[in-house]
UniProtKB/TrEMBL annotation:
This is Regulator. InterPro entries: NepR (IPR041649). The lineage of its organism: Bacteria, Pseudomonadati, Pseudomonadota, Alphaproteobacteria, Rhodobacterales. Residues 14-45 form the Anti-sigma factor NepR domain.
Length: 55
């Protein structure tokens, strides 16, 4: 087996493993606490925007 073939096989395995790890991270759900925080921030922006419109 040539040296280049060995490295190519290893690189392909590393690439595949990295794709699996990153894809599993993308597939994870957002925690409820984080969703609640995002909603609170959205409500604050809406309230601030509405108050700014009144001025």
């Amino acid at each position: 087996m040539a040296l280049g073939q060995s490295n190519t096989g290893k690189k392909g395995g590393i690439d595949d493993n990295l794709r699996k790890v990153f894809q599993s991270t993308l597939d994870e759900d957002i925690p409820d606490r984080f969703k609640d925080l995002l909603n609170q921030l959205k409500n604050q922006d809406s309230t601030a925007s509405a108050e700014g419109d009144r001025k």
